[in-house]
Design brief:
Number of strands: 9
Shape: globular
Number of domains: 1
Distance between the termini: 23 Å
Radius of gyration: 19 Å
Helix content: 40-55%
CATH class: Alpha Beta
Strand content: 5-15%
Number of helices: 15
CATH architecture: Alpha-Beta Barrel
Largest sheet: 7 strands, parallel
Strand order of the largest sheet: 1-4-5-6-7-8-9
CATH topology: TIM Barrel
Length: 369
């Protein structure tokens, strides 16, 4: 049996999943809290600098330039599927692509992240956030998805599309780049809630349209990254952020694909996140998964949550910590194994490959033996 994917110079030999997905995906089943034959696993930032074949293909160009090349974006998305045998692929893209595409003036600077030429400062800046027209503004994203579905569908490996949640996108636009305090964001949301609400409304519209276009092109699941929500108190999150997140998830609910909501440092927000409408709540490494399940409740699946830094340790340490995550996930259906954040660039790909095998062999939640 082979994967059916083309070889790439510098890539590791193809790995064959010991639990073929067949017509039903273990990842999609787990997202829906259905029984599975093995615990599914994928990694955030699994297509990235930890892979030598990624570095060879990406070279030194702009990440936005790579995303705008559908063949390259598809290739970078496929690399971890070949190497690791993960149960889902995630589109090679970036959360700022839609706001970049509508001309807000966002770039991604290596070593820094998203940077905004002229940050959002007042209601006058709302005119800079026109509605997105996917076929005109991001045709390269839709083309990459079409290429990927042709490769992945025969394997039963779904493609995860994604977007930034309105709060996290707003944070970049208001702060002008990554922040350690989110002072400008909090000053705006508390000091001018009307403008803050209008900003999130505009971003909701862009995000819903972008996500729906990804599903129409063939994405089988969606993840909403609210990377910076952990900087908020529960009251701030509930008042200023959660309504917009719900509008986004409501805006794609009729599509019938699993939806995942993930944030970093959101342990105190998990109960609120569970009311967002997402079918799966991503959990970072700071909250034990059994405690997270109690906070989230029985009606939602969970995703996570091995500390990415643990993957830099000897594999016996990684294996021990992964088994603890699997134990805490319990035996009830609805666990997608992942890291608690993205793969670190210095991670040994061999460790991740062995980790996938361990999770497939030893995962417990909802598994039919």
């Amino acid at each position: 049996m082979t994967t059916g994917l083309p070889e790439v110079p510098g890539a590791a030999p193809r790995r064959v999943d010991p639990f073929p997905a067949g017509p039903a995906s273990a990842f999609l089943a787990a997202c829906r809290r259905q029984a599975v034959h093995h615990t599914p696993v994928w990694f955030m930032r699994q297509a990235g600098r930890s892979l030598p074949e990624y570095r060879a293909a990406r070279r030194e160009g702009s990440i936005l330039g790579a995303i705008a090349d559908p063949e390259l974006a598809a290739e970078l998305t496929l690399q971890p599927v070949r190497r690791y045998g993960v149960d889902a692929a995630i589109l090679f893209c970036d959360i700022v692509v839609p706001v970049h595409a509508v001309g807000f003036g966002v770039d991604v600077v290596p070593g820094t992240g998203p940077v905004v030429d002229t940050p959002f400062r007042s209601s006058a800046d709302l005119r800079r956030l026109r509605p997105i027209e996917p076929e005109t503004d991001v045709p390269y994203v839709l083309r990459a998805i079409a290429l990927l579905v042709d490769e992945l569908a025969p394997l039963g490996v779904p493609l995860i599309g994604f977007a930034g949640a309105p709060f996290t996108l707003a944070s970049y636009l208001v702060e002008g780049g990554p922040s350690r305090t989110f002072g400008k964001v909090k000053a705006l949301m508390h000091g001018d809630p009307a403008t803050w609400g209008a900003l999130l409304d505009a971003l909701c519209g862009i995000t819903v349209t972008f996500l729906r276009a990804q599903v129409a092109a063939g994405a089988g699941a969606l993840q909403l990254f609210d990377s910076w929500a952990g900087w908020l108190s529960p009251d701030e999150y509930e008042r200023f952020v959660l309504p917009a997140t719900r509008r986004v998830l409501d805006g794609v609910a009729d599509l019938g694909v699993p939806t995942i909501l993930f944030g970093v440092g959101t342990g105190e927000l998990l109960g609120l996140m569970a009311t967002s409408g997402a079918g799966v709540i991503g959990v970072d490494w700071r909250v034990p998964l059994d405690a997270a399940r109690r906070r989230i409740g029985d009606e939602r699946a969970v995703q996570g949550n091995l500390d990415p830094a643990i993957c830099l340790a000897p594999f016996e340490v990684v294996a021990s910590q992964a088994r603890d995550v699997l134990r805490r996930a319990g035996t009830d259906p609805g666990h997608v194994f992942n890291l608690g954040h993205g793969v670190l660039p210095e991670t040994d790909p061999g460790v991740l490959a062995a980790l996938v095998d361990l999770v497939h062999d030893e995962g417990r939640a909802g598994v039919v033996r």
